Amino acid sequence: MKIAILSRNPNLYSTRRLVEAGVQRGHEVQVIDTLRAYMNIASHKPQIHYRGRALEGFDAVIPRIGASVTFYGCAVLRQFEMMGVFPLNESVAISRSRDKLRSLQLLSRKGIGLPVTGFAHSPDDVPDLIRMVGGAPLVIKVLEGTQGIGVVLCETEKAAESVIEAFMGLKQDIMVQEYIQEAGGADIRCFVVGDKVIAAMKRQAKPGEFRSNLHRGGSASLIKITPEERSTAIRAARVMGLNVAGVDILRSNHGPLVMEVNSSPGLEGIESTTGKDIAGLVIEYLEKNACPGATRTRGKG
Ligand code: ADP
């Protein structure tokens, strides 16, 4: 197979590992800087050019599109789809997953367990919004945040009101969420490929912190997940339309709650924690599924 990897940086661990695994399994792999790919949209024959030449003959494309380039990255990916190239994850599914609120709405529609979450525009509605999600303690999240930045725990309703008002004053969209205290500062990252959880790890926040992000000093360890957690992760990825996803789950007293479904899950933490060849399993998925024109949406929508 000829595989394209859309990535801004060939030196990132995940990109490097995907190249390595692809080559090891006998494929031709090219890393394409997402922002340097350009397209001819008017043409009947959709094309992508890169450094002065047309990209041709690809069987599959692996999008590793960072949050800050979602818009342009999804346009490039959509162009690949229109050319009949099989995407590991489709552009529509990636756009969907990048909108935290839209993702939660889609997941809730399918009955997947979620922390109770509220969203409002006007500061006048804040007191009732807080009541709606069950009062303090509360977690407030900036919608565009990543790696735990913009996620705040408010122990009292007064604190929550002030923080919400401050974010609203800064014109930041936020959501307000029930705090899952019993999770004990831990969450579970389930790495889904196709209809399987191929690896899982527990991330534990450092003492005095409730955010378990590795970027915030959290530590990762092996964990055995329950059948319910496994099926929740698989269903969440399917609802989002993602073939490959990192599903973050909180263990609550009333079962697994999905916090987020990530469409470009990192490989470093999960490979080093589990010792598994995740990159190889991702390439294997493409070997089994990438046939020309098999894209569900072919760039529509
Ligand atoms: P980001 O996408 O920026 O990583 P998250 O929504 O994943 O933001 O939150 C960061 C971390 O904060 C999570 O990994 C989890 O440990 C903790 N956390 C988030 N929401 C809750 C919640 N409702 N209850 C308990 N802990 C939470």
Automatic annotation (TrEMBL):
Mn(2+) 2 binds at E260, N262. Mg(2+) 2 binds at E260, N262. ATP binds at K141, E178, Y179, D187, R211, S212, N213. Binds 2 magnesium or manganese ions per subunit. GO terms for molecular function: ATP binding; metal ion binding; ribosomal S6-glutamic acid ligase activity. Its cofactor is Mn(2+); Mg(2+). InterPro entries: ATP-grasp, ATP-grasp_RimK-type, ATP_grasp_subdomain_1, RimK, Rimk_N, Rp_bS6_RimK/Lys_biosynth_LsyX. Pfam families: RimK, Rimk_N. In the C-terminal section; belongs to the RimK family. This is Probable alpha-L-glutamate ligase. It comes from Pseudomonas flexibilis. The lineage of its organism: Bacteria, Pseudomonadati, Pseudomonadota, Gammaproteobacteria, Pseudomonadales.
